[in-house]
Amino acid sequence: MTDPTRRPLITGIGITAPNGLGTQAYWSATLDGKSGLGRITRFDADRYPVRIAGEVTEFDDTEHVPSRLAVQTDHWTHLGLTAADMALRDAGIDPAAHPEYQMAVVTASSSGGTEFGQREIEKLWTRGPSYVGVYQSIAWFYAATTGQISIRHGMRGPCGVICTEQAGGLDAAAHARRLLTTGTTMVVTGGTDASLCPYGLVAQLSTGLLSTRDDPERAYLPFDTDACGYVPGEGGAMLILEHPATARARDAHPYGAIAGYAATFDPRPHPGHPPTTNLHRTITLALDDARTTPDQIDVVFADAHGHPAHDRAEAQAITTVFGPHAVPVTAPKTMTGRLYAGGAALDLATALLAIRDGVIPPTTGVRAADPACEIDLVRATPRDGPVRNALIIARGHGGFNAAMVVTTP
Amino acid sequence: MTTFTLDDMRQIMTGCAGVPDSVDLTGDIGDLTFTDLGYDSLAVLEMAARIQQRLDIPIPDDAVGEMKTPQAAVDYVNRRLTG
Amino acid sequence: MNTTTTRPATRHRPGTPRPRPTRRGRRVVITGIGVTAPGGIGTPAFWDLLTAGRTATRTITLFDPTGFRSRIAAECDYDPTTHGLTPQQIRRMDRAAQLGVTAAREALTDSGITHDAIPPERRATTIGSAVGCTMGLEQEYLVLSDRGRHWLVDPDYRVPQLYGYMAPSTIATEIAWTADAQGPAALISTGCTAGLDAIGHGYQLIRDGSADAAIAGATDAPISPITVACFDAIKATSPANDDPQHASRPFDLDRNGFVLGEGAAILILEERTTALRRDAHIYAEIAGFATRSNAYHMTGLKPDGREMAEAIRTTLHQARLDPADIHYINAHGSGTRQNDRHETAAFKDALGHHAYTTPVSSIKSMIGHSLGAIGSIEAAACALAITHNVIPPTANLTTPDPECDLDYVPRTARTATVDTVLTVGSGFGGFQTAMLLTRHHHRGGHHD
Question: Which stretches make up the Carrier domain (chain B) (predicted)?
Answer without folding.
Answer: 3-81
